[in-house]
Amino acid sequence: MQAFRFDPVALPESARQLRREVRDFLAEQISKGGITPHRNSWGSYDADFSALCGERGYIGMRWPKRYGGHEKSALERYVVTEEMLAAGAPVGAHWVADRQSGANILAHGSEQAKQEILPEIAAGQCFFAIGMSEPNSGSDLAAATTRAEPTEGGWLINGTKIWTSSAHRAHYLIALARTAAKTEDRHAGLTQFIVKLGGDDVKVRPIYNLYGGHDFNEVVFDNTFVPAHRVIGKEGDGWRMVTGELAFERSGPDRFLSTFQLLRQLIDALGEQPDRRDRAALGRLVAHLATLRTMSTSVAGMLERGESPNLEAALVKDIGTTFEQEIPEIARLLVEARPGLERGDPFNEALARAVLTSPSFTIRGGTREILRGIIAKGLGLR
Ligand SMILES: Cc1cc2nc3c(=O)[nH]c(=O)nc-3n(C[C@H](O)[C@H](O)[C@H](O)COP(=O)(O)OP(=O)(O)OC[C@H]3O[C@@H](n4cnc5c(N)ncnc54)[C@H](O)[C@@H]3O)c2cc1C
Q: What is the rounded CA–CA span in Å between residue 41 and residue 84?
């Protein structure tokens, strides 16, 4: 049986100093109107702000300098991420590339791919989408039927991906495709490819979400050519990489801060003298938030040491997304409100957005049931 481990991590002085710098930078940006705090920070797309983050060294922070990175620690990266989300900064454009695609290319990509793509990502000028889910393969990714076949100088991809966030504005997508027929080992024969978006051979069609926004898409590959140097890792090794990526995708503060702006608004709405019931409810939320931060920084510490905390990441996402969903439920009980998306009353707007987006928190990045399956397996229960 594998036990959970959440060793406490003390932030080094360099991370505390960086936190102050980022906080000052964001306060200045907000006060001079450079950015408006967003309710949906990592879903908000602002290419200019991403370029500014690139200039300041806030993207690709852990990567080697020769690829445009800054050779910082996972904990330094953690505090930048946390400050951005807490301020509601519009980090959505570079989010996926910085969080997981770049790290994946750095670990397993070809030298040519690293040289041509990583510096652009670190500069905040190259954005990625995730091409894992398919119409009949979401939780069960190994059922992917998108095919890649070898051709002169590379591969031809055919198939359909779905729920592909930001594919309409990203420069590349990492696609999981089948390069060999299924065998008894369902996880064998899958490979990851870096696919250039924007050409005629990849069709990107919008799917509108619950609040009418266009965040995700259907993506159809039609004999899409991918040069050989844009295969990630060894042919057939895609499953290992996808599961490695998920530790980055599931453990960060983005998995418990999605409705943080509403928590702030709730504190303001309850005023200087909240009654006993309100104080108890707020205290409970803040205590949960503090615990999640401790767990999430602990995972950052494990990633720093080169470990693969997949189990701990699954726990952070499961508990974190439950917390994010609880905030609007509790806010609704504590404050009489008329939620509405139009900008005006900040509490009503934050509540409306949280109510409409929160059902997706326990689906995106792996559903609650799948995470609990991973946790149960880790405990030796199945
Ligand atoms: C906002 C949002 C953004 C997204 N962005 C992306 C993206 O950028 N790229 C991408 O590739 N995907 C993306 N997704 C897709 C997401 O990863 C999938 O929706 C998710 O993995 C579930 O897959 P599915 O929708 O096919 O549901 P299914 O896998 O069909 O699941 C349906 C239900 O059955 C349950 N279930 C399935 N298998 C099991 C099992 N073995 N045991 C118990 N219960 C089970 C699930 O928990 C779920 O409740 C996004 C989704 C959302 C909501």
A: 8
- CB of 168 sitting under 6 A from ligand 1: no
DSSP letter for each residue of 162-196: ES-TTTTT-SEEEEEEE-S---SSTTTTEEEEEEE
Intervals of the chain under pLDDT 50: none
Are 107 and 69 a contacting pair, CB within 8 Å? no
Distance separating alpha carbons of residues 128 and 126, to the nearest angstrom: 7
Q: What's residue 314's pLDDT?
A: 93
Residue nearest to atom 38 of ligand 1 (CA): 139
Q: Look up the CATH architecture of domain 13-126.
A: Orthogonal Bundle (1.10)
Size of the chain, expressed as the number of residues it contains: 382
Which single residue is written with the structure tokens 């959970």?
4
Residue 338, CA atoms < 13 Å, CB-side half-sphere? 4
Whether the CB-CB separation of 182 and 189 falls below 8 Å is answered with yes
Residue 230 corresponds to which tokens in the numbers above?
């844009």
* CATH code of the domain made up of 252-378: 1.20.140.10
- 162: which strand partners? 218
Whether ligand 1 lies within 6 angstroms of the CB of 202 is answered as no
| CB of 203 closer than 8 Å to CB of 136 | no
pLDDT (tens digit per residue) in 128-144: 999 999 999 999 999 99
Q: From 1.10.1040.10, 2.40.110.10, 3.90.45.10, 3.30.70.980, which CATH number describes the 130-237 domain?
A: 2.40.110.10
Place of tokens 């490979």: 191
Identify the residue whose C-alpha is closest to ligand 1 atom 44.
369
Task: Give the pLDDT score at 75.
Answer: 92
**Closest CA relative to residue 102, chosen from 78, 84, 120, 82:** 120
Round to whole Å and give the CA distance between 108 and 131: 17
Classify residue 58 by its DSSP letter.
-
Out of 139, 146, 218, 243, give the residue to mutate to test ligand 1, the one with the largest number of ligand atoms within 8 Å of its CB: 139
pLDDT at 38 (0 to 100): 82
Q: Are strands 154-162 and 172-178 parallel, antiparallel or unpaired?
A: unpaired
